[in-house]
Amino acid sequence: MSAHNAPARISPATLHLSCIDLAQAGRWFQDGLGLIPAGGTRLMGRGPLIHDISEQPGAEAVRWRMLAANSRFRIDLYQFATPLPRLAPAGAEVSDIGYNRITVHAPDFQATLDRLARLGSPPIGPVTGSKPDRRACVCNPDGLFVEIMESDLLPDAPREPGREGSVAIRAIAISTPDLDASIASFSALLGESPGNSQVHDDAHEPRCGVRSAQSRRATFRGEEMLIELVEYASPGGRPRPSDWRISDQGVFAIAFTANNILAYRAMLERAEAAGAKSREARLDHPDRGSTFVRDGQGFLLELAWQDRANDFGYRPRPANRLVSPERWTVRAVTTIAAPLDRVWRALNDHERMGRWIQADEFHVTKDGFPDSAGYGAERLLITYGRRVSQQVTRVYPGHVGYRAIAGTPFNYHNGTVDASSEDSETRLEWTIRFRTNPAPVGKAVHPQLQQGIEEMLDALKDMVEAE
Hints:
Elements: E1 10-18, H1 22-33, E2 36-41, H2 48-54, E3 60-67, E4 74-82, E5 98-105, H3 109-118, E6 135-139, E7 145-149, E8 168-175, H4 179-190, E9 214-221, E10 226-234, E11 250-258, H5 261-273, E12 277-285, E13 288-294, E14 300-306, E15 328-336, H6 340-347, H7 350-353, E16 361-366, E17 378-383, E18 386-396, E19 399-406, E20 410-422, E21 425-436, H8 440-466
Parallel strand pairs: 1-4, 5-7, 8-10, 11-14
Antiparallel strand pairs: 1-11, 2-3, 3-4, 5-8, 6-7, 9-10, 12-13, 13-14, 15-21, 16-17, 17-18, 18-19, 19-20, 20-21
């Protein structure tokens, strides 16, 4: 049977997630949830297609594909160089408007929670239920709420052989400002009405950090996954900023894929008839194609088709074949003769940071959350007239992540400092990753950065040990 007259089938196929640090995000999904790399590319993040989708001429990103145990679903991770991704707001909740939560089936429930906790994502609310029906919710480094379920919402759904170590993604929740309008939009797109399946009710929401939720819900059933639409009356869903861009941290789109071109065209026609606006750029290949649309609520959707015999984008690839956003890595390690808690306080104390950071001037320009040096904190370093702005992107016990947001000749510039206890001493490891354009600049500055972070760690060590 040809791809043109195969029985129509439309299913969720891809979650598109903009990340601050692609390497960190990839490690979280691989080591925490067992997802499998399926390749990556830099070229797909350039050119007219992504410019048209993002409405940002000059947009550029690196993309990694990650496969779950589902037979045909993946998570695509993006790290944008331009426009620079903006951090998700502090204190984000699942009720915020957008694609904010996925539900996964993890048979090794407790082991999964333990791995995620080591990666800085402990449960954000109570772990509920008892074996074999426990549930918990964590938040990943880029603000995506991930609900972990011990039992399978769709036990009869297909799973890909050989992926027993990976979770299966079973639901995507969409917080909408208008449930009835979203039901109409998704009913038109999918060619069917909501079903009787249920993923959550209001009593489940404390698990994801929301107390006393009041909402209305509707659920669509796919072959391997459920799509849950939720309109929150309390707490009210915070809208996206009026200047929201797809490069901003978080999920920016989901994809629905038909298994033949006729079903794809019919899906696109139904979506447009329901008020969705198509972007001009499209991908057209003999055995697959896609376009992006915005529905009447402003949600970005990718509508696609792919012959089931074509496994492009769904083939596992070695992790070392992933395209790295960065070209250069600088790393330094020191051991400080002081307990971890004392070193940690010194490392994150902005008032003392100017004593060991190599800068002529050091200023905190924006306080973080929940404290001055926390998530979203911004600081200005002035050295030899160069003004470098940094932003704290992630903090959890023993780990600080930051990035340069202005003033350097680099892009994809991320740094991490990891602290661990070794007997009565503390081990600090500082890593900086970056890319330069043109490439020879990186070769020139690499030894300077290496010397610089070694000297700063020595200064921090001297300061702490002298106190």
